[in-house]
């Protein structure tokens, strides 16, 4: 499928209006070389976690890129293809010592199934509010309430029907679940958030996160008004 080019500002406004979003949908893109970064785009001001970078674009309107050295979270940097998996993550020690799993084996089985890009294939990651992105996004991330997520799910199924499958593990929710998983599968994915993203990026207890492939975004935006204004919709009116 060809890369999507459309009026992202109009789509952002539609999503905000019909879903009652707090903040903006976030445009995200991987870059493989420095030359892919738009001229004049600023580098992240400090070392940050991917989930915090999403929050900055969502809530503060920040537009920036982040090479590997500006990514603070090793797990996030690995899942996004910026650098190799650390030994403590590979063996299961990291999350086991944090009390996330009852054994190293349980942790290892989870780590082995976390979606991730090939380490080193990503030069940098780019972030912007969808309405102000100076690049064509590959993924659009939305943080919002379960009710708004319901309408996004219905919009995703509006044209062709079927079922959606959420794939998550309760760790690395924004980086692996909503970004890498969505990019690799080409399908929308929901995640409940994780302790890290809720602590460091301000995802509220009543919020979830969703990643949407940019190719699917126009059809989902077109369907939002239909599913929110349908006679049986709890969001109607």
Q: How are helices and strands ordered from N to C?
A: HEHEHHHHEEHHEHEH
Q: Helical stretch count?
A: 10
Q: What is the subunit arrangement here?
A: single chain
User: Could you give a short account of the major beta sheet?
Assistant: 6 strands, antiparallel
Query: N- to C-terminal separation?
Result: 36 Å
Structural class of the helix and strand makeup?
alpha+beta
Short description:
The protein is an alpha+beta fold.
Describe the structure.
This protein has 237 residues and is α+β, with helices and mostly antiparallel strands. The longest helix has 13 residues, at 173-185. Helix 1 packs parallel to helix 10 (217-229), helix 2 (50-60) crosses helix 9 (195-201) and helix 7 (146-157) packs across helix 10. The chain has one domain (8-229). A 6-stranded antiparallel β-sheet has the order 2-3-1-4-6-5. The protein has helices at 8-19, 50-60, 74-79, 87-91, 93-97, 104-111, 146-157, 173-185, 195-201, 217-229, and strands at residues 26-31, 64-67, 124-129, 139-144, 189-191, 208-213.
